[in-house]
Amino acid sequence: MKTNFLDRRCPQCGSPAEKIHEGLTIGEKCTRCNWSVVTTYIPSIEQDDTLYSINLKNANHHDKDQIKAISKIAGINFLQARNLLQKEKIIVFKGKATEIKLIKSILENANISINIHPKFNW
Ligand SMILES: [Zn+2]
After folding, report:
1. Residue 25 Cα, ligand 1 centroid: separation in angstroms?
2. Looking at the 3D structure of the chain, how many domains does it have?
3. Sheet-wide strand order for 52-56
């Protein structure tokens, strides 16, 4: 069983300190009194201001999973996504690192090959 207690004691009363991790807030608090320290943790991916673009290379308008992936990402319905895939040779999505990471995972799950520019390290 994983314990949630740190090897730390509260500086005020000496009781064990407990880890806090809720959303983007991390820190520690006393299990007995009201002592606590918290910081807001911003993952470095969210500090990446680069505008990335994803090029889809081999999207197939006969493949339902691929059409669904495109409709999800572009916020369009299935038929619109299929039309888009039929018409466009190359489809490009642009966004910040957090969006690109999500889009990338959706496309990869649908077996669509992609290129990301500039180099994407997340
Ligand atoms: Zn305490």
Report:
1. 20
2. 2
3. 91-95, 52-56, 114-117
Q: How many A from CA of 122 to the centre of ligand 1?
A: 39
In a domain, 122, yes or no: no
**What separation in Å is there between the alpha carbon of 16 and the centre of ligand 1?**
8
The alpha carbon of 3 and the centre of ligand 1 are apart by a number of angstroms equal to 19
If asked whether residues 105 and 54 sit together in one domain, one would say yes
State the distance from the centre of ligand 1 to the C-alpha of 13, rounded, in angstroms: 4
Q: What CATH number does the domain containing 53 carry? A: 3.30.1390.10
CA angle 60, 61, 66 (to 5 degrees): 65
| pLDDT per residue as tens digits for the range 64-89 | 999 999 999 999 999 999 999 998 87
For residues 36 and 50, membership in a common domain is answered with no
Q: 35 and 21: one domain? A: yes
Q: Which H or E run contains 29?
A: strand 25-30
- Per-residue pLDDT tens over the stretch 51-70: 999 998 878 999 999 999 99
DSSP state of 46: G
Q: At residue 4, does pLDDT exceed 60?
A: no
Predicted pLDDT at 53: 95
Measured in angstroms, how far is the CA atom of residue 46 from the centroid of ligand 1?
34
